[in-house]
Every structure is written in structure tokens, then in C-alpha cells.
Design a protein that fits this description.
alpha/beta, Rossmann fold, binds NADP nicotinamide-adenine-dinucleotide phosphate
């Protein structure tokens, strides 16, 4: 039997890398893409068909899609939109440029790539689109406003798209993980840097504490990316893929609490949890 084909974004590490390996084992023909040339080379060494794809760059999206369709003869069974990063910082410190960059990667680029592939799926009258969202697409915590906004946007686009393409045989699923053991936090530090170092920020001291906290090891209970891959496989292979898949216990807990508790109680609990990061912003007080 001919292998089914899947294009995955962001395979240099974490969930994308684990999905590529997991699906290859299940006899999928995996087109594993990454942003950097050295990661593409490494993916090729691992036996993948690979091409560079930076989702924030329209030219890169077009080139990757042209390459893919050339390789497959114009067909594709599934797309996994995994590439993404988390921008930290208080909402008041998010410049227009920083906020735009977050959306360019997590939303605009993702959607541009998807839109290039929908006609292929429609022609075949079948196709699966799996969007890696986050529990942050359902609940927005302090200092994660940019990331949450991008994932809320992804949830909204996916919910609309799901019912626009269903009658063409195209199925759209959202995966909503809680914290997963990947390089996500480590890479987030780089994006955080310009905000973290803004000494004039009201939140400067909290930022230093957050940053220190991020350098600590994740607790042992934090699951590996393979738990996300399980849900991805269901979304790709089941005859009845779900609209959304929550992953990790804390993700379920968040969503249940959000459903049953009033906003002011949720806000109170969030503020209590954030207390450890709050400090008197004394560096801003002129002596
Ligand atoms: P990760 O190890 O940091 O992987 C993120 C991947 O996205 C990397 O391959 C990264 O490439 C790629 N990427 C970033 N910007 C890109 C761009 N402009 N174009 C193409 N690729 C780009 O983190 P991860 O946890 O596996 O994250 C994968 C997805 O899961 C993300 O969408 C994230 O929001 C979501 N998620 C993660 C968690 C978690 O706790 N880990 C929880 C919920 C949701 P580079 O190596 O080149 O930066």
C-alpha cells in the first residue's frame, strides 16, 4: 500500500520532531520541514524528505509547497501546523513589532501555508489539517498575553475553517497541550530578551524572577512530546477525528475550572499563583 503523505512545520525539535519520528514509524511519508538550513540537513540525515520552511516568510512558504507538490505529484494527505513560539511580557510592554512577529509565525504564516494546501485537499476530496494550539488558546495568563492572543486567534480561525471545508472531505483538528517537555521555554527566553532587559518597565523585577524560574528543570510530571503525538495520530488516522484534543492533566483541569468558576474567582486564583513573581518595582522609584 502506498504511504500516506504529511507535511509538518517546525521539526527541528520538540513536538514537530517527535511527530515526524512517530509518523514515520507508522509508515507515513513524512515531509519534515524546519526554519534553519542545519536542521534541514539533520532531518535529511535522519532519513526524512526535508526542505527549509520559515512560516513568517511568504516566499519560503511558496518554495516549500512547490517542492512538496513536485515530490508527491500534486497530492498531500495531511498538514500538521506545529511551528510556533511563545512571546512573554506584560501586555503594556508589547511593542507593535513584537506583537506582530508573534502573529506572523503563530497565525498569519500558519494560515497562509494552510490556504495554499486547501485546494490540493479539495481536489482530492480528502485531507487532514492538524493545528497545534495550546491550553493558552483557552485561558490567558499574565505575561503570556501575546502568545495566548495568537493561540486564541488560531482557535477562532480553525473553528471557522472546520465548518467551511467539512463538506469537501477536509477535517480540521486542534491540539491543545498543557506544558510539554520540549525546548519551548528555552527558546522563549531568546524572544523574551528585548522585553526582559527594558529597565524602564514597571515589570522589570518580575521579569528577572520569571526568567530565573524558566532556567530551572521542569518537574518530573511534565510529559514528553510523544503524548501529543498520540493525539496527532488520532486526528490523522481516525475515521472520526475530534475538533479538539486537550493534552496533559493540567490542561483538563484549567478548562474544567474555567467552565465552572466565575471569572472573578479564576482571576483571584491566577493572582495568587502569580504572587511569587510580584515585587515592589523599587528600581523605578527615584530616590
Ligand atoms: P520547540 O521545541 O521550541 O519547537 C518549536 C518549533 O517551531 C521549532 O522547530 C522552531 O524552529 C519552530 N519555529 C519557530 N518559529 C518558526 C518559523 N518562523 N518558521 C518555522 N518554524 C518555526 O517547542 P514545542 O513545544 O515543540 O512547540 C511546538 C508547538 O507546540 C508550538 O506551536 C507551541 O506553541 C505548541 N505548544 C507547546 C507547548 C509546550 O509546553 N511545549 C504547550 C502547548 C503548545 P527553530 O528551532 O528554528 O526555532
Amino acid at each position: 500500500m502506498q504511504s500516506r503523505t504529511v507535511l509538518i512545520t517546525g521539526c527541528s525539535s520538540g513536538i514537530g520532531r517527535a511527530a515526524a519520528l512517530g509518523l514515520k514509524k507508522r509508515n507515513w511519508r513524512v515531509f519534515a520541514t524546519a526554519r534553519k538550513k542545519e536542521d534541514v540537513r539533520e532531518l535529511k540525515k535522519l532519513g526524512f524528505e526535508s526542505h527549509s520552511l520559515d512560516v513568517s516568510d511568504s516566499k519560503s512558504i511558496k518554495e516549500a509547497v512547490d517542492w512538496l507538490l513536485e515530490e508527491t505529484g500534486g497530492t498531500l494527505d495531511a498538514l500538521i501546523n506545529n511551528a510556533g513560539y511563545g512571546q512573554s511580557g506584560a501586555v503594556e510592554d508589547l511593542s507593535r513589532e513584537i506583537l506582530r512577529k508573534q502573529f506572523e509565525v503563530n497565525v498569519f504564516g500558519l494560515q497562509e501555508l494552510t490556504n495554499r494546501l486547501i485546494p490540493v485537499f479539495r481536489r482530492q476530496r480528502r485531507g487532514r489539517i492538524v493545528n497545534i494550539s495550546s491550553v493558552s488558546g483557552r485561558i490567558s495568563l499574565p505575561y503570556s498575553g501575546a502568545y495566548s492572543a495568537s493561540k486564541y486567534a488560531l482557535e477562532a480561525l480553525s473553528d471557522a475553517l472546520r465548518n467551511e471545508v467539512r463538506s469537501d472531505g477536509i477535517r480540521v483538528s486542534l491540539i491543545e497541550p498543557g506544558v510539554i517537555r520540549t525546548k519551548f521555554n528555552e527558546k522563549a527566553q531568546g524572544y523574551f530578551l528585548p522585553i526582559k532587559e527594558k529597565r524602564t518597565s514597571h515589570h522589570y523585577k518580575s521579569y528577572q524572577k520569571i526568567s530565573q524560574g524558566r532556567q530551572k528543570e521542569l518537574p518530573l510530571r511534565v510529559p514528553p512530546p510523544e503524548v501529543v503525538v498520540k493525539r496527532i495520530i488520532h486526528a490523522l488516522e481516525s475515521s472520526r477525528p475530534r475538533a479538539r484534543y486537550l493534552v496533559a492533566k493540567e490542561a483538563y483541569l484549567f478548562i474544567i475550572l474555567k467552565r465552572i468558576l466565575p471569572d472573578n474567582l479564576i482571576d483571584f486564583a491566577i493572582r495568587q499563583r502569580m504572587k511569587k513573581y510580584r515585587t515592589k518595582q523599587s528600581h523605578l522609584i527615584k530616590k
